[in-house]
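User: Predict the complex.
Assistant: Input components as received:
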Amino acid sequence: MSDMPRLETPLLEVRDLAVAFDTDGGAVHAVNGVSYALREGETLGIVGESGSGKSVHVLAMLGLIPRPPGRITGGQVLFRGRDLLTLPEKALRKVRGGEIGFVFQDPMSSLNPGMTVAAQIVEPLRIHLGLDARAARRRARELLDLVRIPNAAGRLDQYPHEFSGGQRQRVMIAIGIACRPKLLIADEATTALDVTVQAEIVALVQELKREIGMAIIWITHDLGVVAGISDTVQVMYAGRILERGPVDDIFADPRSAYTLGLLRSLPDLTRGRAGRGRLRQIEGAPPDMRAPPPGDPFAPRNAYATPRCRTEAPPLVQAAGAAPGHLVAAWYDLPAILAREAEEAR
Amino acid sequence: MRAPDYPIVSVRNLSKHYPLRSWWGGKASVFRAVEDVSFDIRAGETLGLVGESGSGKSTIGRAVTMLNPPTAGTVAFEGTDLAKLSPRAMRGMRARIQTVFQDPYAALNPRMSVGDYVSEAFKLHRPEMGRAERRAAVAGLFERVGLEPRFAGRFPHQFSGGQRQRICIARAIALKPSFIVADEPIAALDVSIQAQVVNLLQDLQAELGLSYLFISHDLRMVRYLCHRVAVLWRGRIVELAESDALYDDPRHPYTQRLLGAVPVPDPAAERARLAAEQARPASPIAEGGDLVEVAPGHWVVTRS
């Protein structure tokens, strides 16, 4: 799981990406200077809630936000050295669905209801790999086998509505990995599924990752899923990265009050009802991105915020005393605050 | 706090079938969405209802409130068989049985101020209340659910998802119900908001003595909130127990599979869980059998 950091060109490098949407009420700054790098074969778990920019930034990367009203207001997205943001649409289309596969939350709206499953899997194979019809169909059947759709050959010519929700998501994954991508982006890919089906999909993606050696960006709000599959975790809020680092360090030694709040608000599945108190809730609501707060966007909900948090946005920097590569954007010192609290509690 | 021991809701042998007819008008058959389900909910108790989508969770919620009456079986509320009530008496009963749904935005009327939406409950069920009295009651409810009363004149789109759910909860408790069906009430909310709403539901229960049927796929929240839990599988209850007993000692293979699939927010533990799951292929679960009490209050479908 925990590869040593290697000195190599990253597979993907996002530099200072900024995305805005023009609305009647003015510009909504959905992504505000997001920078990170992804190694080949690395799994990055991105955690965030509505308005965090987690989905918008990957859609922008893939050229999938509607423009207008969307605008990319700055930054670069280097994929294997090429800036995706400046690629002509035709070249970008070759990357999308080819070297970069993606799976979104709702397979029913991502799949074309009027096309058979075979037609939809065959399409990227013909476009990106240049396979002929017969070879593409054979590969499509192999892919359905690979994502463990029973009786794959018999189901190729069925339509999406003839598949269950979990099976449709498997078909989406089959399309996502059809061209053996270097990077698979999954945005809330298991959110709409039952927990037992989610477990199967997560196991499947892990297996495919081992087989194909692809990198993964897994976007979710579920800290449990992120814990199991990620090498690196990135916590986003209000269009910014608040914290990022190796998965074990993020969970054991969170440095952002938001990360800590999320971890603390989860009830423990193994803890009995006796003596349990109220859940530790995060007060307030995510910011209205039409009028985001100045400074640290989490400050209005953060009991530990300092006056500086309310006026000046903190940069994302190496957290003092944390594991290398564990970055945080915070003016306050969370471990010191928690130590003081523990002291006072005694 | 222990729940008192008399049932406020008694469901017996509830079934809900939907006729299926092939499009060419062939032989009719029925889809058994819910089959022979029985449970009690005591005053002040929260019963959790879990199971995969399509297992009949929401169907039971709608049958219990008579929004979509059952095909067979009875639902008794405070000792009264709801199916035997006249429409007029049922309307009166509706004040005592409320529902909170997953999507608060769909429940609200976009053209009605949220204050009017809550006030509507009084207009329908408490015609004797005057305008000023209603306004004061709405302000009190807003405060109770953690919203500023001065927001009553605003419209649904001016609120966040969590605030909208608070508005729906305000309306649900307006008529002082004794029983609320909460059907996935936190599923559409941001993670940072879910704990707020669960805390609110719990506070209201302590204050008003409410009973809840809490329908959810969030198995962590169900253990935290519910006194007892029923596990549905293919329209039947396969296990029902005190929540600690169910989570610490699940007996039915489906319950075991369900609880075993919940990701753990701890990297080392979760990686170990994933590895164990991959090593052990899921074995098929046999259907059929009867609910048997295997320990006091712990019922499991067992094949004889």
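Chain B touches chain A through 46 residues (CB under 8 Å).
Let me know if you want any component modeled separately.
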